[in-house]
Design goal:
This protein is mainly alpha-helical. It has helices at residues 8-31, 34-52, 69-99, 102-106, 113-143, 151-175, 179-197, 208-214, 218-230, 237-257. α3 packs antiparallel against α5, α3 (69-99) packs antiparallel against α7 and α6 runs parallel beside α10.
Length: 261
């Protein structure tokens, strides 16, 4: 009788192998989607090149404390990759798996649907981080944008921003029953999130009241935190706290509302 039952350690080993297999399979599928890779990793840097090609963006701006607009826009294009990853790329994949019954069928195998969610978040997070490194490198080499002076603070702020962006994507996946719905919800949330990140006007240059409101949103707080770390200061605990609060809140909402079938 005992020989027919798997021990907890055996089940754990089997689950770990299944999770690794899911991650490997999802990575292969992810790399076969050049459209997603382009929008997450290439488009934000291309946007930075466009901004940097405008002469006025390379001149010091008194409203930004002597910074150039191109300096202020590096965090913005980094956040653009996070928003694209969380709102546009990841939700259609997860809702598509649910819509086609793939997640339901996984529940009868050693592979659990949670493994797919974890793999998707890891892959999209890694792509967004790669895009951030590319934007920093191009900004430095092409437009002499200084690298972050407070590297540790920058990494902490970026990690919290990635967490908030992916949690937001998980919420979109949770409330959307179909791929079409997730595309519509993601598109509706995209422009407000990009405005709060400072795409049309850097958060530092916004009127005082508007700027304070934007700093209460995840990407507005992320833009300020990344800007502070880039200037050599430790990011404000207020901005880091807002980011952490949004990440925890959105994760809780996604966990509460997410359905595997």
């Amino acid at each position: 009788m005992s020989g027919t039952l798997a021990s907890p350690s055996a089940r754990s080993t089997g689950g770990s192998r299944a999770t690794r297999a899911v991650l490997t399979a999802e990575r292969r599928l992810f790399l076969r989607e050049p459209g997603s890779l382009f929008w997450i990793t290439v488009f934000p840097t291309a946007l930075l090149v466009v901004f940097g090609s405008i002469p006025s963006f390379r001149e010091a701006d008194p409203d930004l404390g002597g910074l150039r607009l191109i300096d202020a826009y590096v965090p913005v294009v980094i956040l653009t990759s996070l928003v694209l990853s969380g709102l546009q790329a990841m939700p259609p994949v997860l809702t598509g798996y649910r819509e086609r019954g793939i997640l339901r069928r996984m529940s009868t195998t050693p592979v659990r649907p949670a493994s797919v969610l974890a793999a998707q978040m890891a892959l999209h997070g890694a792509a967004a981080l790669g895009s951030a490194l590319l934007s920093l490198a191009v900004g430095r080499l092409a437009f002499d944008v200084a690298l972050p002076r407070h590297l540790f603070g920058y990494v902490i702020a970026l990690a919290l921003a990635v967490g908030a962006a992916l949690a937001l994507g998980a919420v979109v996946s949770a409330v959307s029953r179909t791929q079409k719905a997730s595309n519509a919800v993601g598109a509706a949330a995209f422009f407000p999130m990009m405005f709060s990140a400072g795409l049309w006007l850097p958060v530092q240059a916004m009127p005082d009241l508007l700027g304070r409101i934007m700093e209460l949103l995840p990407f507005g707080a992320a833009a300020r935190a990344l800007g502070e770390a880039a200037a050599g200061d430790w990011p404000s605990w207020q901005h880091l706290g807002v980011l952490a609060l949004w990440a925890v809140l959105l994760t809780g909402v996604a966990a509460r509302w997410f359905r595997w079938e």
